[in-house]
Amino acid sequence: MERPTLEVKNLKLASGQRLIVDVNYFDLKPGECLVLFGPNGAGKSTFLRLISFLQPADAGEIYYQGQKVELKNSAEFRKKIVYLLQKPVFFKGTVGDNLLLGLKFRKVDQTQQKKRLEKIAAAFQVEPLLGRLPEELSGGERQRVHLARAFILEPEILLLDEPFNGLDVQYKDRLMADFYRLRKTTGVTTILVTHVRQEAAYVGDRMAVMLNGQIIQTGTPEEISTAPATPEISNLMGHETLVEGQVVNSENGLLEVAAHGEKIFAFGQHKPGEKVVLTFRPEEVILARQQPSTSVRNWFLAEVTELRPLDRMVLVYLECGFSLKAFVARSSAAELELEVGKKIWAGIKASALTTWPSQQENKIDEGD
Length: 368
What we know:
The protein has 368 residues and is of the alpha+beta class. The protein has two domains: 6-230, P-loop containing nucleotide triphosphate hydrolases (Rossmann fold, 3-Layer(aba) Sandwich); 239-357, CATH 2.40.50.100. The chain has helices at residues 44-51, 75-78, 95-105, 110-123, 139-151, 169-186, 197-203, 221-226, 231-236, 330-335, 358-367; strands at 6-15, 18-28, 33-37, 59-64, 67-69, 81-84, 157-161, 189-194, 206-211, 214-219, 240-251, 254-259, 262-267, 275-280, 286-288, 298-310, 313-319, 323-329, 343-348, 354-357.
């Protein structure tokens, strides 16, 4: 088994009686991009500061390639890390000067400086910006240069705090694509903090979900999206409540749930007679003019009540005895000739539904 690049054990930081960070175990595998995902205020940025020794922890152990690192001997470890703050900070001089500054500080020879500058400027498409001053750049250009400045140092571990925050959709998509391609090419081991699940799904090899300073669930973005460990993670991953019903049959994990006169099939560990809440992601809902003969177990004849265009997608609101939403591409919406009042078949796979005890779900709803 490959040894983790970074391991964290029993890391704690408190403010008065409140634990800001309380992580029992965390590991970072060589060459992976791990996304630290969670809502604002969950402790994600604080966690980055603690593991990079920019802020002392109250307790805990940090290991780099199996060797324990402590504050008193952390200088060598910190040389292997580049930590990119959320907001870019630039120094006097041109964009080119700013990109080279870290290399000069690390005493990289001029030939290597030139090679790295040419390579990174091309990779992040900032060649036209090299002679400009930072204050002349747009917000998106500043963020692009900010990322380029991290990659040019060729760190062993890259820590990124919300690197795509505040960008418009099209610019963000381009920058994420450039980042994804270059990170895969270089293989730099990365922790990326975000509260946006679409970013996590796009760039992350693995996710660690942080809530209230604790890492609650770790897995691939797909694993966490399809099998969230708690109702709160379900909400964070974009799941919405479909309906509350009662389990009438359970066989090998396949549940038959009675709700609003419908039989709905889902997977879960509940017994007949238990009340459950079914949640779903609008991305998982299939729309069709006629009910297809497929393996999809759940089909509902629904009426379109609202169409809401969102960039390249359309959010379709449906009513079928209970409310339902579906995300479809604009081209699919046009092909289906969707309009308010139109009847349409909506399908959801049993595996796309998540089940929760209804009392637990109600507690979550009451707290929101």
